[in-house]
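Morning F.,

Quick status update on the modeling queue. The single chain you submitted on Monday has been processed. Sequence for confirmation:
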Amino acid sequence: MDVTGLRIALFSGNYNYVRDGANQALNRLVGYLLRQGAQVRVYSPTTSTPAFEPAGDLVSAPSFPMPGRGEYQVPYRMSARLRRDITAFAPNLIHVSSPDPLGHRAVSYARKRNLPIVASVHTRFETYPRYYGLAFLEPLMVAALRRFYRRCDALVAPSDSMAQVLRDQRMSYDIGIWTRGIDREIFNPGRRDMEWRRSLGIPDDLPVIGFTGRLVMEKGLDVFSDAIDLLQARQVRHRVLVIGDGPARSWFENRLPDATFLGFQQGQDLGRAVASMDMLFNPSVTETFGNVTLEAMACALPAVAARATGSECLVTDGVTGRLIRPGAINQFADALQHYCTDAESRHRAGLEGKMEADRYGWDQVNQALVDTYLRIVRQRQRGAMAAASPVP
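Structure tokens below.
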């Protein structure tokens, strides 16, 4: 079999109703699969106001708003209508991208029909409780995730560091890499626009510290704010530029009253905003890859990031930026101060980051996942089953 023989049913908790790095990667994947001649059908919650048009055929799954985070939908079951649609589509491979109730039902559906299952890991869900005072739940979440992933034939992680975390957690016996690519037309140093910066009231010689991402507490907004407080106390000249929106925006604006908040940006506007920063500060530990870090590096910016799975695979400490122990406020402030006050080091690290980012292209990384699909399908055709698991 080659790629044209693939019929993939993709299950997602959020394919296009709220924009994030995970669903943009999934949409790029589907677009690539369709261009290569594969058949794909996507099952996900939908809304009347999606963030962007979906790639491929999207079938709406029954869902309800997530408690406390109403912008997200929880797909809670596989309805009879969905089951009929999946059966009519007749997939020969199931791809699940979220361990939600629909993902569990999709895995059960596939196992009953002896269909191969590939799961992609996009978020470190087990780390979320610590941001809401519920850290004691983390071991329970790890156990629940292990039960889900061990029922799949293979996992794909976006980085070597995340793959190792999954191995250490004993999530699967077959873990591959599906990394992320970069759109070099949008993210490149040529997008830097000093006139645009001036329109925001930013002098040319004032270093800009950027934050890019969805404004939710699990992105480390508290750590970001505390480090900026230290810079201000040390009287280090800088301006904070925030790109993104989300439920914690009001909290973040109150916490950083001197920052410039651009809200949600996309396309060429996003590329201009990122390239017009002087460094990226990404304290989050929840990402499995770090799309925003790669985008900043592609624009020749140094990255100051938490030493966590989302950044360890991208940032070379002391070369393309700094990797700091998660939550180490003083060390984050030290790294930011260094780049704010040493333009030569900032420029040198940015150039090194640009060279690293040039290695990432979307077609290459998506083809790696296609190769995994084909390998798993061929294994099943030869009669091989998923590696033995204690979970039925």
